[in-house]
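Ligand-bound model needed. coenzyme A.
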Amino acid sequence: MDAKTCNESRVVRTSRIFPNDVNNHNTLFGGKLMSDIDMLASITAGRHSRKECVTASTDSVDFLSPITPKDSVCMESFVTWTGTTSMEVFVKVIAENLLTGDRKIAATAFLTFVALDDNGQPSGVPGIIPETEEEKKLFETGKERAEKRKLHRKNSKELASYFTTRKPWE
Ligand SMILES: CC(C)(COP(=O)(O)OP(=O)(O)OC[C@H]1O[C@@H](n2cnc3c(N)ncnc32)[C@H](O)[C@@H]1OP(=O)(O)O)[C@@H](O)C(=O)NCCC(=O)NCCS
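Prediction:
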C-alpha cells in the first residue's frame, strides 16, 4: 500500500456562527464544535484509507479561546500518523475576527480512526509522507502519542470492568 501525503487527506471548512450554535455566553457551543471536529476528521480518515472508518477515540479537544458570532471559523484536518489499521487525525480550528482580521487558534484536537474491511474488521491503511514543518512535527511526535493512547486504552478497559450496567434506579 503506497504511503500518502497529509495533503491527500486534508479537509478544510470555513463557516459562520449562527444563533442556534451558541451557548449562554454567546460563544460557540463546545458540543457543536466537537461534533463538527468529528465529522471533518471522519472525512479525512475516509480520504486517507478509502475504506469505511470508525472513531476509536478522541484524545482531547482543547478549547484555547472562545469563538464569537463576529468570527469566521476555519477548520482543517489531516492524517498525521498511522499504525497498522489506525489513523491519527489532527484538527485545527482557527477563528478570524471578520472586522479586524485578527486570527487565533481557537481549538485543536487529536482523534483516532480505525479503517474497516467488508466484514467490519480492522483493515490496513497507507502510511504517511509529511511535507510541511507542521506536518513533520506532528508525524515525529505521533508514535509517542499512540503509545500513550495504548496505555490509556488498557486503563480504560480495566476501569470499565468495575462499572455496572444496572439501571440507575434499581
Ligand atoms: C475501534 C474498534 C473498531 C477497534 O476494534 P478492535 O477489535 O478492538 O481492534 P484492535 O484491538 O485489533 O485494534 C485495531 C486498531 O485500533 C486501535 N485502537 C483500538 N481502540 C482504540 C482506542 N480506543 N484508541 C486508539 N486506538 C485504538 C488499535 O491500537 C489498533 O491500531 P493499529 O492496527 O494501528 O495497531 C472497535 O473497538 C469499535 O468498533 N469501537 C466502536 C467504534 C464506534 O462505534 N465509533 C463511533 C463513535 S460512537
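Residues 34 and 161 are 27 Å apart (CA to CA).
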